[in-house]
């Protein structure tokens, strides 16, 4: 097997600090031919990966977090080319979903070499200009996308606590935003939600931001997407809500609505949506499910 191992040198938690080299060395001991790809930008990384696939790479492995994994998704979605993850980024939420988060680079490489795979769904975003992109975990808009804006500009602290601090800072200026949401429910009916929302999130996976279970019941292999909408409330009440969000027990609160959908359209003026931790487009956006679009390596 020939593997293209993608590293993004701009990854926030330093995916290039040795994890890729250790994983590549381990793969080679298993007889897996491994080429490390490291672009100077997201665009260059994508081009390098695309070329490697055209030249016959049988599998793709990513050393990094969800943002770097997302670059690879765009190239391997729907192809049947399996994707492996060496979790070494800030969030690692897809790695958590796949049971890889706690693996060190050597153990994660062993999972690739062992060859066990499963097929999971992806969420597919269609922008108003017709362009498309995929994501694997959660799309965030509203309060949580503002948290991402802030977290991405913070130099300290590193790791998951960066998101926690960004949440607390953004909470101080919390306000609702006008939304129009159109939900194509799994029973075939259409439901529309309009009015102010604090946040609107779409989950193919359960968590974002390094393990925050915003869509706690999402299953990336059920052919459906989970939507979580949170309406404005008093700041003190919302402050009490935050710990429940981190525990995944928030879905029973009056201000929280959840839906199972085949597709959803989100619209709100000037709001940038984030998916897999990085910007994916400005609302309005339409998101639908691409069933079993990604083959991933998993531990045996």
From TrEMBL:
This is Diacylglycerol kinase. One of its GO terms (molecular function) is ATP-dependent diacylglycerol kinase activity. Gene3D superfamilies: 2.60.200.40, Probable inorganic polyphosphate/atp-NAD kinase, domain 1. Its cofactor is Mg(2+). Its EC number is 2.7.1.107. NCBIfam families: PRK11914.1. It holds the Pfam family DAGK_cat. SUPFAM superfamilies: NAD kinase/diacylglycerol kinase-like. It comes from Microbacterium koreense. Keywords: ATP-binding, Kinase, Lipid biosynthesis, Lipid metabolism, Nucleotide-binding, Phospholipid biosynthesis, Phospholipid metabolism, Transferase. Residues 1-129 form the DAGKc domain. PANTHER family: LIPID KINASE YEGS, SPHINGOSINE KINASE. It comes from the Bacteria. Belongs to the diacylglycerol/lipid kinase family. InterPro entries: ATP-NAD_kinase_N (IPR017438), Diacylglycerol_kinase_cat_dom (IPR001206), Lipid_Phosphate_FormReg (IPR050187), NAD/diacylglycerol_kinase_sf (IPR016064), YegS/DAGK_C (IPR045540). The lineage of its organism: Bacteria, Bacillati, Actinomycetota, Actinomycetes, Micrococcales.
């Amino acid at each position: 097997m020939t593997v293209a191992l993608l590293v993004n040198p701009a990854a926030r938690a330093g995916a290039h600090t040795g994890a890729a080299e250790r994983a590549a060395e381990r793969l080679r001991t298993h007889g897996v031919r491994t080429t490390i790809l490291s672009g100077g930008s997201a665009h260059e990384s994508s081009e390098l990966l695309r070329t490697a696939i055209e030249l016959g790479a049988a599998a793709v492995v990513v050393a990094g977090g969800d943002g770097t994994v997302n670059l690879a998704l765009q190239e391997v979605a729907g192809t049947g080319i399996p994707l492996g993850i060496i979790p070494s980024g800030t969030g690692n939420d897809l790695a958590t979903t796949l049971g890889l988060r706690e693996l060190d680079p050597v153990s994660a490489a062993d999972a690739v070499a062992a060859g066990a795979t499963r097929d999971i769904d992806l969420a597919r975003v269609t922008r108003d200009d017709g362009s498309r992109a995929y994501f694997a975990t959660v799309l965030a808009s509203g309060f949580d996308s503002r948290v991402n804006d802030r977290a991405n500009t913070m130099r300290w602290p590193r790791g998951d606590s960066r998101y926690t601090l960004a949440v607390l800072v953004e909470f101080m200026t919390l306000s609702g935003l006008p939304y129009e949401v159109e939900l194509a429910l799994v029973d075939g009916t259409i439901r529309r939600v309009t009015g102010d929302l604090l946040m609107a999130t779409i989950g193919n996976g359960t968590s974002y931001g390094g393990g925050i279970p915003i869509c706690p019941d999402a299953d990336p292999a059920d052919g459906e997407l989970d939507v979580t909408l949170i309406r404005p409330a008093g700041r003190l009440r919302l402050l009490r809500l935050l710990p429940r969000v981190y525990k995944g027990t928030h879905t029973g609160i009056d201000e929280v609505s959840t839906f199972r959908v085949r597709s959803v359209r989100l619209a709100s003026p000037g709001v940038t949506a984030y998916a897999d931790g990085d910007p994916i487009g400005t609302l309005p956006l339409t998101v639908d499910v691409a069933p079993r679009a990604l083959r991933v390596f998993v531990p045996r």
